[in-house]
Amino acid sequence: MLELPAGSAIIDTPPEFRITCIKHNVQHVDAVLYTHHHADHVCGFDDVRGFTDHAQNPLPVYADEATLTSLESMFPYAFKPAPAGLSLPRVELITIDGCFGLLGEEIQPIRVLHGKLPVMAYRIRNVAVVTDVSHIPADAEEMLQGLDVLLLDAVRYKPHPTHYHMDAALEVVKRLRPRQTYFIHLSHDYDHDVVNSQLPDHVELAYDGLKIPIR
After folding, report:
1. What CA–CA distances, in Å, run from 105 to 56, 65, 75, 91, 205?
2. Smallest Cα–Cα separation from 122: which of 93, 153, 143?
3. How do residues 101-133 score in pLDDT, each as one tens digit?
4. Residues 6 or more apart from 57 whose CB is under 8 A from it?
């Protein structure tokens, strides 16, 4: 969740989206940004209706064209007129084409690879979220220089065909040299406290409820 100057935005709506919003008392969402269309990142889409039922305008949803097409295919009912008396997610699909303004902040989309699938990473000032990634192209690495905080996929210890594993993620940290890195999209390979005690300075595992100031 991004708390921006003029409102709050969510990156991805996983299957547990509703439960997470309740747990963290999320009362209002002004926009959604998607990284890609895989089930663990979009299957909570229907639960945005809890935020759109009483909103004056449709909820802006930002993603690349392939992800928006997949959303329309996976949730076709949401993009048709609602029958009388029924509630549907009311959204406005917006195709990302370069940097864009959102709620008083500039968002820089950065395309990386999840296996062979292009996915969207996002940079907000000096914080970047790079999930579900197995390769960061050279031009994307240029956009990820000078970070205060990097949130980076490190799914498990063993190599993975479409995600960074621990050693690969640490190599990326060495190249990008952010001030602080949090590993995300974690499997049950990791004992949180044990792994954190073994990681280099300024690298640690993320956790539910982590709050990071955007400077």
Report:
1. 22, 22, 29, 21, 27
2. 143
3. 999 999 999 999 999 999 999 999 999 999 999
4. 92
8 A C-beta contact, residue 79 and residue 72:
yes
**Tokens 């008083």 sit at which residue?**
104
Q: Write the pLDDT tens digit of every residue in 152-167.
A: 999 999 999 999 999 9
- The whole-angstrom separation of Cα 161 and Cα 159 is 7
Q: What is the dihedral of CA 205, 206, 211, 214, to 10 degrees?
A: 80
Sheet of 180-184: strands edge to edge? 100-102, 105-114, 117-124, 127-130, 149-153, 180-184, 203-205
pTM: 0.95
75, 132 contact by CB (below 8 A): no
Phi and psi, residue 168, nearest 5°: -65, -40
Residues 6+ apart with CB under 8 A from 51: 28, 29, 59
